[in-house]
Amino acid sequence: MKCVHCGKDSTRRERVNDGECPGCKRRFALDPGVDKLSDKAFQSALDSVSSEGTVGFVLANLHHAVARRLSRPSRSGAYGGLGFLFGGLGGLFLGLSLDGGHGDLVSTLAPVGLVVGLIIGLTVGSIATKRLPALTLSRTDFDDLYAKWVKENGKPKRLIRPMGNVSLSPELTEELESYSFDRVVICDRHDTVDLLVGNDFHFENNCAVISADGYPRHAFPTIRRMMKQNPRIEIYVLHDATPDGCRLATLIRNDRAWFGGQPVRVYDVALRPSQARSQTTVLWGETQTVFAGPGITADEAAWLSKYRMEVAAIRPEQLIKRLFRAMQTMPHLADTAGFSASGDAGGDTVILWTTDASTSDGGGDSFG
Predict the structure, then answer these.
(1) Contact call for residues 241 and 367 (beta carbons, < 8 A)
(2) Deepest in the core among 9, 28, 51, 254, taking most CB within 10 A?
(3) Given a cut of 60, is residue 318 above it in pLDDT?
């Protein structure tokens, strides 16, 4: 196992004194034999979610990155190889049993068996490849791994601390009201808000970032009042691929606590099942029956009855880039589609979403 501090590779016998590196004398945080993960793999997950220490992240991002490293590799190659092997052997034995030792049928049926075995193996392998990997690492188990890491290495530098429920003084409330913004990102999770605010997305894009249930508490009432009073406001909804998440844009548009059916542009940025289903990332398994209705199509309801996917599965750097791009392009797409400047299209709101999202650790992520 290689030390993440000095790079020395050592065997279990060499790691004396309760897991101490024989090179730099620092202790390993994780034991692959017990934790199923090495320090190097955990460090790789940290490097991925922080883009080599340049982007802030929340613990949910790290949870998914670690879970991906613990998910089982594809077995399609193994299934294909076994099918090929057993098909060939089957052809060989069949030829021997029918040939009586002359060899003609052996030479004829063995290749046939190999071809049949290859077809079976590729078919089974294809089915195995299409199985979506499940999020088998629970948050409790992840927290245990994270605690071990922090004990030996300290908290990661780019980890974003939750804003919590701090109060806003009258002076700061007055200062907040002096700002103007025409765009608001509404999330379904507090840690998504923390992620965007912690990376200064609101400053760099002159927008507000809040959750639908009132987070952050100190700024939410003021922001919602200001956005409802702004006739030019544009709403960008960022949510998990869950039933409640997929209904959120419709709720924002129609609920009296928000816009009550008034003409306003509401853009459903992500995540939709159409985006999530193409991913190779880990997903939640689900057995709840979901029905089609406002904000959810029949096809989406079928997917949501089996799976869930969190926005946190997308690398923070890519999430920020794609959200920025969506905010730049979606108003133009709405105009091209014939929606008015107020978002009114025959009395309804424009609710748009894009078609793909990647969670690859190697980049290429896209949902806009």
Answers:
(1) no
(2) 28
(3) yes
